[in-house]
Design a protein that fits this description.
The complex is a heterodimer of chains A (363) and B (297).
Chain A (H helix, E strand, L loop, with lengths): L3 E10 L2 E11 L4 E5 L6 H9 L6 E6 L2 E2 L10 E4 L11 H11 L4 H14 L15 H13 L5 E5 L7 H18 L2 E6 L2 H7 L2 E6 L2 E6 L1 H6 L4 H6 L4 E8 L2 E3 L3 E4 L5 E7 L4 E5 L6 E8 L4 E6 L5 E6 L10 E6 L2 E5 L2 E6 L6 E2 L11
Parallel strand pairs in A: 3-8, 3-9, 6-7, 7-8
Antiparallel strand pairs in A: 1-2, 1-4, 4-5, 9-10, 11-12, 11-14, 12-13, 13-22, 14-20, 15-19, 16-17, 16-19, 17-18, 20-21
Helix pairs in contact in A: 2-3, 2-4, 3-4
Chain B lengths: L16 H37 E3 L5 E3 L2 H8 L1 H34 L3 H11 L6 H12 L4 H8 L13 H23 L4 H9 L4 H29 L3 H6 L7 H10 L4 H31 L1
Antiparallel strand pairs in B: 1-2
The chains are: A alpha+beta (363), B mainly alpha (297).
The structure holds adenosine-5'-triphosphate and magnesium ion.
The site of magnesium ion (MG) has 2 residues of chain A, from helix 1.
Membrane topology (chain B): Multi-pass membrane protein
Family (chain B): Belongs to the binding-protein-dependent transport system permease family. CysTW subfamily.
Main location (chain B): membrane
Chain lengths: 363, 297
């Protein structure tokens, strides 16, 4: 329903930079996930959009109108909090109707709109319940309904399902996604669960210490993470420190040809892109542990220097502990100074490092 | 169940049977305090009521009579005293609410060093004995007190001092009861989560609306508890009305004391006490009811 522009927003709490020079444009009907570890500034950012915190610097406009000086009650935003935000002295109907009542709508219209939104969130007939007579999931649906009934231009969700169990969380996030698509409502969704972000977002913002690491579509964030942090944060990733010299990335266990300038670098390869091959004689490493997940197997490989890598293989059958193996990276990326400097889509088989061990850099 | 066949199905023992069996022990545990309360509190009340209703008759026996009550409720002076007590209590309740609610709201919703100081200041009267408070009151607001001296220094007329008027006890008692009221209100406000308030602002409530629709309904019980606590104390208070109040009409506390000591009419003093107790028990019931309602939730 609306477009949100955030430009160079910084928020200081004393000396803490909770959000640091953040910019994004969220277009009409888009669902953007804010993803990051604890303390990365996700909530602070969302609370600034909702009007509960004032940015120290920067500007925020909704449909071109500057909102930074507006208090929460005057902003066209609706926020769903993590928990404990329902008003326990009102029943479900009154919780949802409160905002409409403040807007002095006629009674009949209030009833009709509340019933409609209860239906939308799957709580038809729950209007008379008291909030403590609801399950955690139902409470969060009421909180969602309470925001939706006011038809906000922008919907803000701050880890709304964090206190729920995994199954319920998956179901509710699908529902939120459905409702969001149906209403075409511009939405910002805070989460620290990467699977949540990957499954519902149109775009993902990865935050770290208040700074943007990457803003991109889920597939892109997964396939071509912009920084080693994103690479490590989203999905599983093997990060190997080493040195590039004479066109080869070198690690004590193996070398991979890369076309970049010499210097230290970090090689990132996903477990599913790292294939194993039984080695004849002494291999690049040995199998440390085999975990069979049924659909696939995860093989932990220990390199001679003690570093462990994960490799995803179709079955667990061929692998056993202490077995000598060689590594075959498929797609991988090379990072230097917090940026990608090289990406290989199809791997070139690595050579086992010569025994005169190269200078290795280990993180 | 194969062996049982058509035999009577063994009823499983209800799991909570142990609960009913445990109950006598619980009762035993509270028996001692209950007996103590009965002996030290309930019995004196009962005996006082009996002593006012059955009085020595001319023939040496005891007879049922409402004489002292009839006297109390037909005596102009006694009624005035009761009225001034009710008035003082009501005024104090009103002022306590008007003063303590903003203080507690401020303490609950602001952060930093200043609220900590304000809180200690609000709790401070708790540590000041009433008699010292009364003395300070006289030195500040009394005739030729500090306020008078200051006003005089800048050439303004003297104030009409509240000392020895019904306002004297009101001011003293309000000051004395601020800490308890603030503490109880604060604990009530602690139950109102920040998110509940932010959610209200988010759907468009301005501060006054948040206060009226979200905060007050949630702390209604605390307000009731705070007021019944202070009202109970104020209604039967002695020191402050005795020192700061007018000679007539006087509050029930000093009135009882004077009837007992100076007038030497214990029978009448007990009657006044029973009547005072009757009013207090009404406030007490308010308190009990709000606690019970809270428990029910
Ligand atoms: N009111 C505040 N006063 C001082 N510092 C704050 C305040 N709110 C947040 N911070 C700090 O700002 C940083 C970002 O906090 P924020 O709550 O936005 O993190 P988050 O990404 O939401 O984390 P989480 O996943 O744990 O919720 C943290 O370092 C936090 O300590
Ligand atoms: Mg947070």
């Amino acid at each position: 329903m609306a477009r949100l522009d955030i430009a160079n927003v910084t928020k200081l709490f004393g000396a803490t930079r909770a959000v640091d020079d953040f910019s994004i444009t969220v277009t009409d009907g888009e669902l953007v996930c804010l993803l990051g570890p604890s303390g990365s500034g996700k909530s602070t950012l969302l609370r600034m959009i909702g009007g509960f915190e004032k940015p120290t610097y920067g500007s925020m406009t909704i449909d071109g109108e500057e909102v930074i000086h507006l208090p929460p009650e005057k902003r066209p935003t609706g926020m769903v909090f993590q928990s404990h935000a329902l008003w326990s002295h009102m029943n479900v109907f009154k919780n949802i109707a409160f905002g409409l009542k403040l807007r002095r709508l006629p009674k009949a219209e209030i009833t009709q709109r509340v019933e409609a939104v209860l239906d939308l969130v799957g709580l038809k007939g729950f209007g008379e319940r008291l909030t403590h007579q609801l399950s955690g999931g139902q409470q969060q649906r009421v909180a969602l309904a309470r925001s939706l009934v006011l038809e906000p231009k922008i919907l803000l969700l701050d880890e709304p399902f964090a206190s729920l169990d995994q199954h319920l969380r998956e179901r509710l996030r699908e529902e939120v996604r459905d409702i969001q698509q149906r209403l075409k409502i511009t939405t910002l969704f805070v989460t620290h669960a990467q699977d949540e972000a990957l499954s519902v977002a149109d775009r993902i913002v990865v935050l770290r210490d208040g700074r943007t690491e990457q803003i991109a579509k889920p597939a892109e964030v997964y396939r071509t993470p912009a920084t080693p942090f994103v690479a490590g944060f989203i999905g599983q990733m093997n990060l190997i420190s080493g040195v590039v010299s004479e066109g080869e990335f070198g690690h004590s266990a193996f070398n991979v040809p890369v076309a970049v300038a010499d210097g230290p670098a970090t090689l990132a390869v996903r477990p599913e892109a790292l294939t194993l091959k039984p080695a004849s004689g002494v291999g690049m490493g040995h199998v440390h542990r085999v975990t069979d997940y049924g659909t696939h197997a995860m093989i932990d490989v220990e390199l001679p220097d003690g570093e462990r890598l994960k490799s995803m293989m179709p079955t667990a059958d061929e692998w056993s502990s202490m077995q000598q193996v060689d590594l075959v990276p498929g797609a991988f990326a090379l990072y230097r100074d917090n940026a990608a400097i090289y990406r290989a889509d199809v791997g070139t088989p690595p050579r086992k490092a010569p025994s005169r061990t190269r200078g290795t850099v280990n993180a | 169940m194969s062996a049982a066949g058509g035999a009577v199905q063994a009823q499983p023992e209800p799991l909570d049977e142990s609960e009913t069996r445990r109950r006598p022990y619980g009762l035993l545990l509270v028996a001692a305090p209950v007996l103590l309360v009965g002996w030290l509190v309930i019995w004196p009340i009962v005996s006082a009521v009996i002593r006012t209703l059955w009085q020595p008759a001319d023939d040496g026996g005891y007879e049922f009579t409402l004489e002292t009550y009839v006297f109390f409720f037909s005596d102009r002076y006694s009624l005035d005293n009761l009225t001034v007590t009710l008035w003082t209590t009501g005024m104090c309740a009103l002022f306590l609410l008007v003063i303590c609610l903003p203080i507690s709201l401020y303490l609950r919703f602001s952060v930093g060093r200043l609220p900590a100081y304000v809180q200690s200041l609000a709790i401070f009267p708790m540590f000041v004995p009433s008699i010292i408070l009364a003395y300070a009151f006289i030195r500040v607001l009394g005739p030729n007190g500090m306020v008078d001296i200051l006003l005089n220094a800048v050439g303004l007329p003297k104030i009409r001092t509240p000392y020895l008027t019904p306002w004297g006890p009101v001011i003293g008692l309000v000051w004395d009861n601020i800490p308890l009221t603030v503490l109880i209100l604060l604990s009530g406000l602690g139950n109102v989560s920040n998110q509940a308030i932010e959610a209200a602002r988010d759907v468009g409530a301005r501060w006054l609306q948040v206060l009226w629709y979200i905060i007050l309904p949630r702390i209604g019980n605390s307000i009731l508890v705070a007021l019944s606590f202070s009202v109970l104390g104020i209604f039967s208070s002695f020191t402050l009305p005795y020192v700061l109040g007018p000679a007539a009409p006087e509050m029930m506390g000093p009135f009882m004391q004077r009837t007992f000591r100076d007038v030497n009419d214990p029978q009448m003093a007990i009657t006044q006490a029973v009547i005072t107790f009757g009013f207090c028990i009404v406030f007490g019931l308010f308190y009990v009811r709000s606690v019970a309602r809270n428990r029910g939730k």
